[in-house]
Amino acid sequence: MDAKPGVTVRFYGALNDFLPPERRGQEFHHVTQGSPSVKDLIESLGPPHPEVDVVLVDGEAVDFAHRVRPGSRVAVYPPFHALDVTPVTRVGPPPQDAPRFVLDVGLGRLVGFLRMLGFDSLWRNDYADDELARVSHDEDRILLTRDLGVLKRGEVLRGYFPRSTDPAHQLVEVVRRFGLTARMHPFTRCLACNGPLSSAEPHEVQDRVPERVTERHSRFQQCADCRRVFWAGTHQQRMQALIDKLRDLERAE
Q: Taking every annotated instance into account, which residue ranges of this chain make up the domain Ubiquitin Mut7-C (predicted)?
């Protein structure tokens, strides 16, 4: 019996994470109704569109609005890092000079890590799905979420689905995905509110820190927004060790 009308599809790289095991790393036949758009076809199969960078239909690069006819061959690629594909039509937006983020409610620990590295990162424990998508679009922020439904919203242009549930591993994923290592400016943002930090003299903060701290430390930072005070304690030492590991990972790649 002849196969039902459809298309031949293959996903590459990390996009295979969203496929069932039997479809990963190989071509497969997918039955379609009519001529769906590239975006609708891809997302019906699992991957969210913000994780896609290049789509080839019958060997030609197309955009998300392109209609896929029965019998077509579709190849879908994630963002390239080592290969220059500038002449090719890309469905993903160009990289940001200074990446900014907005994170969903389930990534509260990850946002602290990103702020620690100096990245402008918004988070609230009551963001609604539509608000996350709107903020991502209107402020040109990368949406980080483990909710595929939010990531597939049409207004979301930049986004990533952390595969791991461990915040430290999620940080490694995000740093690698968006090439953040060379753009890190550690300890320049408030871990609590995302505001910028500035240097402060001991006498400026003595009424906001325990007396024993001012006796042992002479260098402080304070948040311009919430006025929290930070100093180089054991917590900062642990964070510095994590930063060093991230830089080691980059050198090893």
A: 6-84
User: What is the spatial distance between Cα 95 and Cα 71, in angstroms, rounded to a whole number?
Assistant: 34
pLDDT at 1: 44
**DSSP assignment of 69-126:** PTT-EEEEE---SSS--TTS--SSPPPPSS--EEE-GGGHHHHHHHHHTT--EEE-TT
- pTM assigned to the model: 0.90
Give yes or no for residue 11 having a pLDDT over 90. yes
Report the Cα–Cα distance between both ends of the chain, in Å, rounded.
49
Averaged pLDDT score across all residues of the chain: 91
In the chain, residues under CATH classification 3.10.20.30 are 6-77
d(CA 180, CA 247): 10
Token pair 């001012």 is found at 214
Please state which of the ranges 48-52, 112-116, 138-142, 239-243 shows the lowest mean pLDDT.
239-243
The encoded tokens of residue 228 equal 């929290």
